[in-house]
Known about the structure:
Layout (H helix, E strand, L loop, with lengths): L5 H7 L26 H8 L14 H14 L3 E5 L2 H12 L5 E5 L4 H13 L3 E5 L5 H6 L4 E7 L11 H11 L3 E4 L4 H4 L9 E5 L13 E5 L11 H4 L10 H5 L3 H14 L5 H12 L1 H20 L4 E5 L9 H7 L7 E6 L2 H11 L4 E2 L9 E3 L11 H6 L6 E5 L5 H16 L5
Parallel strand pairs: 2-3, 2-4, 4-5, 5-6, 10-11
Antiparallel strand pairs: 1-7, 6-7, 8-9, 9-12, 11-12
Bound molecules: pyridoxal-5'-phosphate.
Pyridoxal-5'-phosphate binds next to α4 and α5.
Amino acid sequence: MSTQQFSTAALHAGHDVTKNGGTRAVPIYQTTSYVFNNAEHAANLFGLAEPGYIYTRLNNPTNDVLEQRLAALEGGIGAVVTASGTSALTTALLVLLKAGDHIVSSNSLYGGTYNLFNVTLPRLGITTTFVDPSDPANFTKAAQENTRLFFAESLGNPKLDILDLKGISAEAQAFKVPFIVDNTVPTPYLLNPIAHGADIVIHSLTKYITGNGTSLGGAIIDAGKFDWSSGKFPEFTEPSAGYHGLVYHEALGPAAFIAKARIEGLRDFGAALSPFNAFQTIQGLETLQVRIEKHSSNALALAQWLENHEDVAWVNYPGLASSKYNALAKEYLPKGQSGLITFGHKGGYEAAKKIADQTKLFSLLANIGDTKSLIIHPASTTHQQLNNEQQEATGVFKDLVRLSVGIEDIEDLKADLQAVFANIKSPVTV
Length: 430
Ligand SMILES: *Cc1c(COP(=O)(O)O)cnc(C)c1O
């Protein structure tokens, strides 16, 4: 891990100002390719005999800075950035898995991830058993001989349950499979899954890390501590036909996975991040700490206000003393619990749709982690494709409204919700 404190590393890690003519900002290298010194240099680069840039699908100097910075902030040995959070996940999975393999996953998942596991990966012969993550032993109970990884979100979206990361990583370690954690909602400022035993961390950079709602992006970060030589991962211990007989585990040691994610994952699946989006993400990352502190304090204040509101049936925010995840929040997220709140109005499903419809500051859209406040009614939108049982398993109740609390003034946010609550009680017709 970087020896610098978080906010310092977020501003400086990975960028050497003595290179590139002293540019203080990280420049955008908007290029697809790089001129080789000569034929021998080209041959060496392609043969991985010397490091360097070949083609932007594989590596790029702007993306490089972002990768080094994210690895420093998460305490990993390396990172690969991708075109979206979803492609970070699919790239990591397809580098590790093949037809016939099995995943044990938490059932508290982002809607897109649930569909990937439940519908799309089975078409490739990769199946998933979903478990209630609140008991770490459930992962091992559901594990099969062909299980190759455990997966969960550190702070489930939209259930807002907090994982017992240490408990689940101990189960994964005993079963000799990597534990992959999607850490999008807490961000590396609030939580470092690797410090609690995770092997690989996934981010959607689209959310809090970029933070301004302008750019999609994703990242895979490798702790570099999983032992790929146990026999469960022959792709790491046998010569790779895709790389002229390279044996990843022997040649690359702790960097075997993250190297494979780049030289096979990006090469063959192609989900490279645009250098322009990397630049945008770097701008956001520089201010992550101050933003996430404000997101967290605003969300806690708003959750407390909602909890005391007579029209509100229930509120779920891990920072509330009433939350069943409060003890885990104190253990894993002591600096703040990020910006997502879910709640139900006493008016139920119909009220939920009205709230999502009528707020003015809270924008109705399918994203989280923007500096601007956002709102959605998952049951009728992001989780619409799931049946009732699946909705309940992922924590999507019919009346659930999800807020992504921005960094506006808290009084304006309360006033925006209050106006809608008042209108639900005594509708104003215009
Ligand atoms: C948004 C999100 C994703 C997917 O990321 P994209 O950048 O939209 O592809 C994955 N996991 C979580 C927790 C998310 O919130």
